[in-house]
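ARCHIVE CARD
Drawer: 12
Card no.: 0347
Subject: one protein chain, sequence and derived structure
Cross-reference: see card 0346
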Amino acid sequence: MSVTAAKGFTAAGIAAGIKENGNPDLALVVNTGPRRAAAGVFTSNRVKAAPVVWSQQVLADGELTAVVLNSGGANACTGPQGFQDTHATAEKVAEVLSAQGTDVGAGEIAVASTGLIGILLPMDKLLPGVEKAAAELSEHGGEKAAIAIKTTDTVHKTSVVTKDGPGGGWTVGGMAKGAGMLAPGLATMLVVLTTDADVDSAGLDSALRGATRVTFDRVDSDGCMSTNDTVLLLASGSSGVTPEQDAFTAAVREVCDDLARQLIGDAEGASKDIRIEVINAATEDDAVEVGRSIARNNLLKCAIHGEDPNWGRVLSAIGTTAAAFEPDELNVAINGVWVCKNGSVGEDRDLVDMRYREVTVTADLAAGTESAVIWANDLTADYVHENSAYSS
């Protein structure tokens, strides 16, 4: 049930005609309260889409009543008109929700878009689509909403975690889209998370940033960063339960981790999911830097696609970083076989079995006790074809 698994939320997903193929392309998620706390994390790209700029502004007071999302157009690099269209979208959502009896202004509506950069949205289709979506809002509309935000995704992505505590049960649910441009600083992703826990905006912000840092920010498909990345967390408080902050953060992280794995599993053209674990680093930052360098090494990604345990490419990637290590103390394992020991030849590479979807690369820096995990995928001819045939 995705974003409607938590009590106090309704959602809808419809085809507004934004996509030429007629597929669903507009989603609406509404928080029916009683609390309307919210937090958000956005792209760190300096080129930001109009919906990102708008949503950052409306989140300043830590409250949201609804999120409207469209696929089929990013509304990025569209100038003043693009921002006006975002404002008009929020105004329309506020208008139709108010007509349904929810007193709300445009400043309580977040907007998110995904799709082709540099083209204005067809507002003559989007605005009537808002009315249609509002008419179909339902406590069971979460899956349809998740389907409506897909672009090059082959599957829609949802996750739900329910917890029991001394005061009763509460839930965190979420939906995500994303299949390419997955890189640190989030990805070309739209994510909406919801909870019926009674948590204020400060608690939501802390939990979301803590979860994002070790989930979405550690997914690196192709080293490219989007202009539209948006991750929102909304709380209705309708369970009446205020969980301990650590327990709440853990639940949010669990949902984010699940969604992040689904994103990398659906990466454009991928045939392998690569789990890169950097161990025994001097600092966590070193571990992350090394993991990202390995994830972005196209030669290694090609080798893994060809099921070649080419550990020399791992060492080459490590060597481009500023992390603390001694070259003759580095160790590398691929699927548990230590093919490199002390910066040189290790176990027989023919022992590495790479037939299966998931491949694990372990890089031991022998410089400390810190570690980090980065998820990536292989580089395939299908990825090149998809990104040459599809404008993005």
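Annotation on reverse: The CA atoms of residues 276 and 361 lie 5 Å apart. The radius of gyration is 22 Å.
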